[in-house]
Each structure stands twice: as structure tokens, then as C-alpha cells.
């Protein structure tokens, strides 16, 4: 860690350029955190310390953590939000698409958890939240790479909690349901209507509502190893 130590808690949001990650970074800022957020060239909201980082580039996440440590001297919360979705039936799925989804959604999360444990372990405290998807349980045709990558986060957290807990670090997974972001723009209108129809709340989430859950879950002091669905009830009633 650097010589300067921030008096305010420090959060690092990986994938903070838009959508749920941007809303989450803004929420932590509003709560009085010093916030660092990664992007891939498009920048982050004013007031957030932007760090350029493509999670699929070897060493990029390590460098991002190092930059946070050098600038702020502490790290309290890490949110791994970076994610990509693709639509490919299994019989047509190309290796490069499978690899890209796995590298971004799962391997990136592994690297982030490893770095977070290294930095937070020294302080003996911290909270990590990984962003999964409710679809990892129900499945979606054409999304086996996406749902497998997200299901992998569950396994990661279940083992990581045993290594993290004795060092004062909590780690949880938030699994959002359909949320109004660019990612959902890939979904056809008719499919979107069907999703709304299956939701007990009869609507799709705003990114700020998912950010609210992520913030609160990250601060719950006796919660670790949990997978929390934030879906408006979708996927839970049958
Ligand atoms: P967006 O597509 O709006 O945002 C995705 C974010 O991930 C962006 O910040 C993007 O950065 C970042 N990202 C993607 N690839 C990389 C990479 N290689 N390196 C670094 N950053 C990367 O999606 P959402 O906000 O909707 O999704 C956020 C998370 O929530 C994802 O993990 C997604 O799987 C999950 N989720 C979303 C749901 C939804 O309905 N929207 C439902 C369930 C889960 P950049 O701007 O540079 O592309």
C-alpha cells in the first residue's frame, strides 16, 4: 500500500463505465466512499477515479489493484461486475466466443478475488461482491457459455468464503434478474414482454435498484458465501 491512507473507505468497481456497474460506483460515491472504477477507454462518472482495464488482458487487473493501493492506501470493498453476454446455440458456438465469455465473466472474477484477498488480507477486513445472473439457475437457450460462466461464480464464492472468512473478509454473489441496461437491448421485445409477464413485480429492474442491493449486501457484516437473487421474484416462485 502507498504512504497516503484514505480516511474514507475505498471501493473498487470493476466494470464501472455503464449499466449496473456505473450505478453501483455512483452509489458508493454517494455513500461517502472513495471510489475507483475500471473502464475500457470510455471513462467513468465524474468524481470516480477511472482506471483503464480490460479484464481479459493478462496482468491488467493486478495493475488496477496496484493503482488503487498506490493512490488510496486501503481497499475496503471490491465489486466484480464486468460481464459479457452472447447468443450462440451450443451446436454453433465458436471456441473464441466461449473463451471470451469465460475469460471476462469467470476468469476475470478469479483474478479479482485473488488480488482482493491479497490486499484485504493485510488489513484483516473487507467485502467482495461478484455479479452473477439469475439465468445461471434457470438457463436460457443460446446462453450456455454465459450461464456456465455465471454458475462458476457460485463455486468460486463457496470455496473463497472458507479462505477469506478467517481473515475478516466476506464474499457474496448478487444474481440480478433482467435489468434495463445495454445488455438487455440484445433481447427481442417479445422476449422482454415474456420476462415481464413472469415477474411477480411485473417489471424489469432499474440499474439503480440492483446497485442499491449490491451496496447494502456489501455492508452486511454477518453475510458471507451467499448467493442473493435480486430479481423482483422472477425465477423463485416455481
Ligand atoms: P452492460 O453491457 O451495460 O455493462 C457491462 C460492463 O462490463 C461494462 O462496464 C463493460 O465495459 C464491462 N466489461 C465488459 N467486458 C469487459 C472486459 N473485457 N474488461 C473490462 N470490462 C468489461 O451490462 P450490465 O450493466 O447489464 O451488466 C453488468 C453485470 O450484470 C454483468 O456481469 C451482467 O452479466 C450482469 N447481469 C445483467 C443483467 C441485465 O439484465 N442487464 C441480468 C443479470 C446479470 P465497457 O463499457 O468497456 O464495455
Automatic annotation (TrEMBL):
GO terms for biological process: fatty acid biosynthetic process. Keywords: Oxidoreductase, Plasmid. Gene3D superfamilies: NAD(P)-binding Rossmann-like Domain. Pfam families: adh_short_C2. GO terms for molecular function: oxidoreductase activity, acting on the CH-OH group of donors, NAD or NADP as acceptor; quinone binding. It comes from the Bacteria. Residues 9-177 form the Ketoreductase domain. Belongs to the short-chain dehydrogenases/reductases (SDR) family. This is Short-chain dehydrogenase/reductase.
Amino acid at each position: 500500500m502507498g504512504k497516503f491512507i484514505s480516511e474514507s473507505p475505498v471501493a473498487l468497481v470493476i466494470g464501472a463505465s455503464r449499466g449496473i456497474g456505473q450505478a453501483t460506483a455512483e452509489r458508493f460515491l454517494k455513500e461517502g466512499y472513495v471510489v475507483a472504477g475500471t473502464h475500457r477507454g470510455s471513462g467513468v462518472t465524474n468524481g470516480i477515479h477511472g482506471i483503464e482495464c480490460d479484464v481479459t488482458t493478462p496482468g491488467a487487473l493486478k495493475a488496477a489493484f496496484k493503482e488503487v493501493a498506490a493512490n488510496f492506501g486501503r481497499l475496503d470493498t471490491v465489486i466484480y461486475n464486468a460481464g459479457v453476454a452472447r447468443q450462440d446455440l451450443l451446436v454453433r458456438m465458436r471456441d473464441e466466443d466461449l473463451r471470451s465469455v469465460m475469460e471476462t465473466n469467470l476468469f476475470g472474477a478469479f483474478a479479482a478475488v485473488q488480488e482482493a484477498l491479497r490486499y484485504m488480507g493485510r488489513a484483516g477486513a473487507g467485502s467482495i461482491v461478484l455479479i452473477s445472473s439469475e439465468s445461471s439457475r434457470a438457463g436460457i437457450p443460446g446462453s450456455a457459455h454465459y450461464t456456465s460462466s455465471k454458475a462458476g461464480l457460485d463455486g468460486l464464492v463457496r470455496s473463497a468464503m472458507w479462505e477469506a472468512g478467517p481473515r475478516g473478509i466476506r464474499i457474496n454473489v448478487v444474481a440480478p434478474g433482467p435489468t434495463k441496461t445495454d445488455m438487455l437491448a440484445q433481447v427481442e421485445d417479445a422476449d422482454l414482454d415474456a420476462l415481464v409477464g413472469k415477474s411477480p413485480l411485473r417489471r424489469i429492474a432499474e440499474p439503480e435498484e440492483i446497485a442499491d442491493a449490491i451496496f447494502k449486501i456489501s455492508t452486511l457484516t454477518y453475510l458471507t458465501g451467499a448467493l442473493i437473487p435480486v430479481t423482483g421474484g422472477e425465477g423463485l416462485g416455481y
